[in-house]
Write a structure and sequence with these properties.
heterodimer; A: alpha/beta; 8-stranded mixed β-sheet; 4-stranded antiparallel β-sheet; 30% helix; 22% strand; globular; B: mainly alpha; 72% helix
Chain lengths: 313, 280
């Protein structure tokens, strides 16, 4: 099975020397939902923005992002436009407040979708019904601020699907919403992905979301992949100390709420060797010197740690 | 349209709008509305300083000219001066704000500190100085007013541009290769339009008042132009006997400035209810 999306050695550098991503590799198979987790500041959003060609000014991306067999990084994802749908994190300023919601989505469709204006309209109305936005006809004429947060997120999901993409990338699409709305939106995403055979790259920091939605997971720490594998396997038996500590922080799993000492290092001052070593309970002297390579440990699982949980490897 | 409806529901703002619309109407048809349109430039010394009567509603001035006619004729210059000053200030301030908000580093810092410097210049002093340097006259006064009013637009637009610069729709536009000028003028500026409009409306009232002060101080409009501030200044020597000479041009200034300020407040409330400040 060839991968739909194959990110290989993706590096993102900011002007001024900060390094946001350092050699990140992620593979998404057709129909697969891949979750990307990590603390804030680990480069999750940057990863998505790099592959979509919308990095902030002053940032440059290197490496390869193979999508449908072509490297889309050099032309800033221009070839992939319309084939990748994007559901952003902040539903508020993702749409221009001065234009009607419908017009903004129709503009995307005019560029990337086939068919006439009437086709587009019919299709968008179908999608708006699919994402359960009340009164789709009226919604098209509204301005972005006239929607609630949940409605705006539904609208953006519909927009992401409007050009029949083969891949949807979502950047914590439910963090800004309350728990009930969050559940509905996640259910919706799962249903749509299954029904349409979509692949998804789903950034989150919520393991609950990860467990319920994703087939596989990549754990990112300070711009590098710490561990990757099938969701169940990784959640049940984490091998990287970071994954284990991250899981222990989840309120559902811990009786006493744990934390990870320290914070994610700033991108301008990454520690040498394994980037997690200053916070790692397993760290030994040489962890500060050698960068642990990302190695396959079992079928579909890979790990970058010199001292993994011994019982599990 | 929603903004207009909102405005009409606010009686005070609607009153302001009424005054402004009335002033524009008077200015447009001044030649036909004034009973003695020739009194703009002709004097009639035989009937000087007559009190208000049926013939001369507001009385006559020291040169025997009908004050009612001159107040009407003065509306046009008051509005035109204010409009020109505000437009010139916008022409400078809006691009400065857009560029400073969009760019980082020395250009942005430089532009905004330059703006701060101009913000610190007192209007009247600059106008008086320019009046001494160049020829005193309404044009010099307008230059001075425009030079001291543009920083308000620059700061307003700067704030909005900064807020939206990191917005996803802006990144997306940049991602598909839209030119910064296109992004700024077509996508960012419309978001700042309500704030700019409110600022412009209040600026109109402010400029009319300041222009009148400059006329009063003798560095604004020059005689025999029918100008409200100038009329009040000329009336000084004839107070308190010829009370009508100063009163009616003064009332005209008061009314129009009030109109613009009420309208500006109303627009601000309509544009963004969170910004309510001056009333309620």
């Amino acid at each position: 099975m060839t991968a739909l999306l194959d990110i290989e050695g993706l590096r993102v550098d900011m002007r001024g020397g900060a390094q946001i991503l350092d050699g990140v590799s992620i593979t998404v198979a057709p129909g697969q939902i891949m979750g990307v987790v990590g603390e804030s500041g680990c480069g999750k959003s940057t990863l998505l923005r790099a592959m979509l060609g919308i990095l902030p000014r002053g940032a440059t991306a290197r490496g390869r992002v193979m999508f449908e067999g072509r490297d889309i990084l050099p032309d800033q994802a221009a070839q992939a436009r319309g084939r990748i749908g994007f559901v952003p994190q902040d539903p508020y300023l993702s749409l221009n407040p001065t234009f009607r919601a419908g017009d903004q989505i129709f503009e995307i469709m005019r560029r990337h979708a086939t068919g006439t204006r009437a086709d587009h309209r019919a299709k968008l109305l179908d999608l708006l019904r699919a994402v359960q936005l009340p009164d789709p006809e009226a919604a098209l004429r509204k301005y972005p601020h006239e929607f609630s947060g949940g409605q705006r997120q539904r609208l953006l999901i519909a927009a992401a699907l409007s050009c029949e993409p083969s891949l949807v990338v979502a950047d914590e699409p439910t963090t800004a919403l309350d728990v009930t709305t969050q559940r509905e939106i996640l259910g919706l995403l799962r249903e749509i992905a299954r029904a349409r055979g979509l692949s998804m790259l789903f950034v989150t920091h919520d393991f609950g979301v990860l467990a319920s939605l994703c087939d596989a997971v990549t754990v990112l720490y300070a711009g590098r992949v710490a561990e990757a594998g099938p969701t169940r396997a990784v959640l049940d038996a984490p091998t990287h100390p970071y994954t284990r500590l991250l899981l222990a922080c989840h309120p559902d799993r811990a009786v006493e709420l744990a934390g990870i000492p320290g914070t994610v290092p700033p991108a301008t001052a990454q520690p040498s060797g394994c980037r997690f070593h200053p916070r790692c309970p397993q760290a030994q002297a040489h962890c500060a010197d050698a960068v642990p390579p990302l190695l396959a440990i079992t079928e579909g699982r890979s790990l970058a740690c010199a001292h993994p949980e011994p019982a599990l490897v | 349209m929603t903004a207009l409806r909102h405005l009409m529901r606010d009686p005070v703002a609607a009153f302001g709008l009424l005054i402004v619309v009335f002033a524009v109407f008077v200015a447009t048809f001044a030649q036909w509305l004034a009973p003695f349109p020739d009194d703009a430039f002709e004097s009639n010394i035989m009937q000087r300083l007559r009190p208000p009567s049926a013939e001369f509603l507001f009385g006559t001035d020291n040169l025997g000219r009908d004050i009612f006619s001159r107040v009407i004729l003065g509306t046009r210059s008051a509005l035109l001066v204010a409009l020109a000053v505000v437009l010139a200030a916008m022409l400078i301030g809006v691009p400065v704000g857009l560029i400073a908000g969009w760019r980082d580093g020395w250009l942005s810092e430089g532009l905004m500190r330059f703006t701060d410097v101009f913000l610190a210049v007192p209007q009247l002093i600059l106008a008086l100085a320019l009046g001494q340097l160049l020829a005193p006259g309404i044009f010099t006064a307008m230059v001075a007013l425009a030079l001291t009013y543009w920083p308000f637009f620059a700061r307003t637009v700067f704030a909005e541009t900064r807020r939206l610069r990191g917005a996803l729709f802006v990144d997306a536009l940049a991602g598909i290769g839209a030119h910064p000028a296109r992004i700024l003028f077509l996508h960012v500026l419309p978001n700042a339009a309500p704030a700019v409009l409110v600022r412009a409306t209040i600026g109109m009232g402010f400029t009319i008042l300041t222009a009148a002060i400059l006329g009063f101080l003798g560095v604004g409009a020059t005689p025999p132009t029918p100008d409200w501030g100038l009329a009040v200044s000329e009336a000084r020597q004839h107070l308190p006997d010829a009370w009508w000479f100063a009163t009616f041009p003064g009332l005209a200034i008061l009314l129009l400035v009030l109109g613009f300020n009420l309208l500006g407040d109303g627009l601000r409330d309509a544009a963004d209810p969170r910004l309510r400040r001056s009333r309620h």
